[in-house]
Design brief:
three-stranded antiparallel β-sheet; 8 helices; two-stranded antiparallel ribbon; mainly alpha
Length: 174
């Protein structure tokens, strides 16, 4: 068992709450476990600011990380990490937006959406991506909906009402 000098204990008391234990241990020439045990005996703890900082670093994913969105409305959309600053919507961008921007040399203008011509959200070929307004998207959906037979149109309407009610009730419970 190591005998700690006054200077070593003073160093632990001053720096343990705000520094990584491994860094402190390497400076003292002992194991991280030995530093933790000594800090525990001295009734020291990591500071809240340090713990918050380490938690953020641990959750931070590297830029370029991709994830698949599985929410109700955007199911199947691939998101790409583009920044570590700002809100979640500023940090993560839809991959098809990035591909469209790269192919066209400009960002997606406000009020426009990038849509998949063939409807396949996994087909990220620049030729399959198209810029459209919300009105154009609504008109296309309406035309497609009107091409269905009336019983199927009724079933779609009822399904949409049911899904809206489910979302509304879940929101009320939360």
């Amino acid at each position: 068992m190591k005998r700690w000098t006054r200077q070593e204990r003073a160093l632990i008391r001053a720096r343990y709450p705000t520094e990584r234990t491994a860094d402190l241990a390497s400076e003292l020439g002992v194991s991280a476990c030995a530093v933790r045990v000594q800090a525990s005996r001295m009734r020291l703890r990591k500071s809240l600011a340090y713990l918050i900082q380490r938690a953020r670093e641990g959750r931070r994913q590297p830029l370029g990380t991709e994830r698949l969105r599985t929410s109700y409305k955007s199911n199947g959309i691939v998101m790409v990490k583009v920044s570590n600053k700002g809100t979640q919507t500023e940090q993560w961008r839809p991959k098809h937006h990035l591909i469209w921007s790269q192919a066209n040399g400009k960002n997606v203008p406000p009020g426009f959406r990038v849509i998949f011509k063939d409807g396949n959200k996994q087909n990220l070929d620049p030729g399959n991506l198209e810029l459209a307004t919300r009105d154009e998207i609504s008109a296309q959906a309406f035309a497609k909906f009107r091409s269905y037979p009336p019983p199927l149109q009724d079933a779609i309407r009822l399904t949409c009402k049911l899904q809206s009610e489910i979302v509304r009730r879940r929101a009320g419970q939360v």
